[in-house]
């Protein structure tokens, strides 16, 4: 096990490694997002929780790799990486597309006998609540318009055409993965689900987020905040504190 924990992986970023942490938290980015989005989470939870931020292919230092445009395939790949880190209790946090991915990862872990402490599903409607969306089919200007409307991408990115052209392919691929995903009826999670969302999120109504309760046998909690799809940017301290309390309460 130790060899796995010290081998650098393209998939896992540990910004504040903590060998004595009582639990690990796997963080899954939103569409177009990357591992450093969770740097503040890692910093805030260290050293009590060892944060593993997942870096999908096709962005930053993995830009030369092909993106994975199928969510179940991406979940399979993430599980292959995460299994090396299950020497202590493991929780999952995903924002937007990352929440749906977290659900699929949690299902696969449970099928392998690894029981996550909890799935934190942020800013995402429940898998059973489908919306017919096709942003990934828009031209570049249409994609950029969508990103502007969600206020999750730094203004400096929009002002840098070269940078924008560089990141758009990964964003488009992630949107394709999220928008072509179809939930198929199957087992509920044994792990509890704690959903966090903004009350004015155009991508997920509070009612749609509440339907996460249908996907777990382990208990459900819904936490709402003012704001839209990236409510996290304004409420990070509260969300992180809630995550920390929840993990602590579920540890033996």
UniProtKB/TrEMBL annotation:
Signal sequence residues: none
Record field: transmembrane: none
InterPro entries from the UniProt entry: AB_hydrolase_fold, TEII, TesA-like, Thioesterase
Hydrolase keyword on record: yes
Keywords attached to this entry: Hydrolase
Domain Thioesterase TesA-like: residue ranges: 26-247
Chain segments annotated as coiled-coil in the UniProt record: none
Family per record: Belongs to the thioesterase family.
Protein name: Thioesterase II family protein
Taxonomic path: Bacteria, Bacillati, Actinomycetota, Actinomycetes, Kitasatosporales
């Amino acid at each position: 096990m130790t060899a796995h924990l010290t081998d650098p992986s393209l998939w896992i970023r540990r910004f504040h490694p903590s060998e004595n942490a009582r639990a690990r938290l796997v963080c899954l980015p939103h569409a177009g997002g990357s591992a450093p989005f969770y740097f503040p989470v890692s910093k805030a939870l260290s050293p009590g929780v060892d944060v593993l931020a997942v870096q999908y292919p096709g962005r930053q230092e993995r830009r030369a790799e092909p993106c994975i445009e199928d969510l179940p395939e991406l979940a399979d790949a993430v599980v292959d990486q995460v299994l090396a880190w299950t020497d202590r209790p493991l929780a999952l946090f995903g924002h937007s597309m990352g929440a749906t991915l977290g659900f699929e990862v949690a299902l696969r872990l449970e099928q392998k006998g690894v029981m996550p402490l909890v799935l934190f599903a942020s800013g995402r409607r429940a898998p059973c609540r489908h919306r017919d969306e096709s942003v990934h089919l828009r031209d570049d200007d249409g994609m950029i318009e969508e990103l502007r409307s969600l206020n999750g991408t730094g203004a400096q990115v929009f002002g840098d055409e070269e940078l924008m052209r560089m990141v758009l392919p990964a964003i488009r691929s992630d949107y394709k993965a999220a928008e072509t995903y179809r939930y198929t009826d199957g087992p509920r999670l044994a792990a509890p689900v704690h959903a966090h969302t903004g009350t004015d999120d155009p991508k997920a109504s509070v009612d749609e987020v509440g339907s996460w309760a249908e996907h777990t046998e382990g208990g459900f909690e819904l936490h709402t905040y003012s704001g839209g799809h990236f409510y996290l940017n304004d409420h990070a301290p509260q969300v992180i504190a809630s995550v920390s309390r929840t993990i602590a309460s579920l540890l033996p």
